[in-house]
């Protein structure tokens, strides 16, 4: 009798923590995302979460060779003439007014994003390493003439970066916000990234490899789920032992 009744219990013991884990992960994710909009300490207007752009670069023979879907936020530090002080400007890249172009070479892929009527140019250079079977963001630069600078145009460039590392043949994915520090005066916040700078075939992303940040984010609900599974097992065991005892008790009477 106990063994027959054990099947649904065993099923629940496995499924309940999984359902709870999935639910908890959802709630963690929704709690974690709106925080940037709530920071009031910033001296400047908070632009909120940037819209996700779908940027792609097309080859000379009309095939897509680079795909980058991501939300971008620029954090620029400069000496403002109008305000007569050093300011930190946080601006979102608006996909609907941004034009993507670039080039794809054997070991080097370039994504160029132009906005503000071409007065702002943001460039990403990806490099591949066939020895290690990886690619990464190796260079980023920004030039813009829309800010009110003492020194003229703002420009920042770093050619020795090592961000957004992916595996050749796969796309790189990172749902969590990341900060790419380019120079002392420029950092780029990325949101909801999926990109592939090499080996795009059929105009579509290859299978995605998730970044470490996302994996860590997944770990919390897994640990919570495992703890809950343990708890359910303990309760279940206590219940079954209790039942067996009382059952045995009836038989002796
Ligand atoms: C043209 O497209 C093919 C894939 O369809 C690619 O292998 C080749 O490198 C492309 N050639 C140029 C010049 O872009
Ligand atoms: C912008 O960068 C500064 C440091 O340079 C940092 O204190 C600030 O939190 C950053 N803001 C955002 C929204 O990333
Ligand atoms: C960037 O920062 C450095 C010092 O950290 C400063 O000397 C330089 O003028 C800054 N450049 C711009 C364009 O703001
Ligand atoms: C602002 O100007 C001062 C000197 O006038 C300089 O030392 C400083 O590096 C500049 N900061 C930036 C962010 O350009
Ligand atoms: C800018 O600020 C400095 C002090 O921070 C002051 O000495 C200078 O006169 C100011 N310049 C202008 C044009 O307001
Ligand atoms: C672009 O999108 C933003 C909202 O994300 C909107 O405020 C703006 O009006 C749009 N601009 C154009 C030219 O469509
Ligand atoms: C911006 O540059 C692109 C070429 O990269 C060109 O097609 C476009 O017409 C330019 N837009 C303006 C407003 O100059
Ligand atoms: C600033 O950039 C604009 C293009 O956006 C260019 O025409 C101008 O010459 C630049 N000025 C300086 C001082 O570099
Ligand atoms: C490519 O990767 C290999 C192995 O990780 C490394 O030894 C080599 O220095 C890398 N090459 C470049 C150009 O980064
Ligand atoms: C460029 O990036 C590297 C790695 O993040 C950093 O060590 C270096 O200081 C940066 N260079 C400049 C000019 O900011
Ligand atoms: C390229 O980008 C446009 C949006 O700018 C998008 O509609 C299109 O689907 C993209 N192409 C591919 C192959 O993803």
TrEMBL record:
GO terms for cellular component: late endosome membrane; lysosomal membrane; plasma membrane. PANTHER family: LYSOSOME-ASSOCIATED MEMBRANE GLYCOPROTEIN, LYSOSOME-ASSOCIATED MEMBRANE GLYCOPROTEIN 1. It is found in: Cell membrane; Cytolytic granule membrane; Late endosome membrane; Lysosome membrane. Residues 35-56 are annotated as: Disordered. The keyword Transmembrane helix applies. Its main location: membrane. This is Lysosome-associated membrane glycoprotein 1. Belongs to the LAMP family. InterPro entries: Lamp2-like_luminal (IPR048528), Lamp2-like_TM (IPR048524), LAMP_CS (IPR018134), Lysosome-assoc_membr_glycop (IPR002000). GO terms for biological process: establishment of protein localization to organelle. It is a single-pass type I membrane protein. Keywords: Cell membrane, Disulfide bond, Endosome, Glycoprotein, Lysosome, Membrane, Signal, Transmembrane, Transmembrane helix. It comes from Poecilia formosa. Residues 50-200 form the Lysosome-associated membrane glycoprotein 2-like luminal domain. Residues 43-54 have a biased composition (Basic and acidic residues). The keyword Glycoprotein applies. Disulfide bonds join 174-211. Residues 1-29 form the signal peptide. Pfam families: Lamp2-like_luminal, Lamp2_2nd. Residues 220-251 form the Lysosome-associated membrane glycoprotein 2-like transmembrane domain. The chain crosses the membrane at residues 218-241.
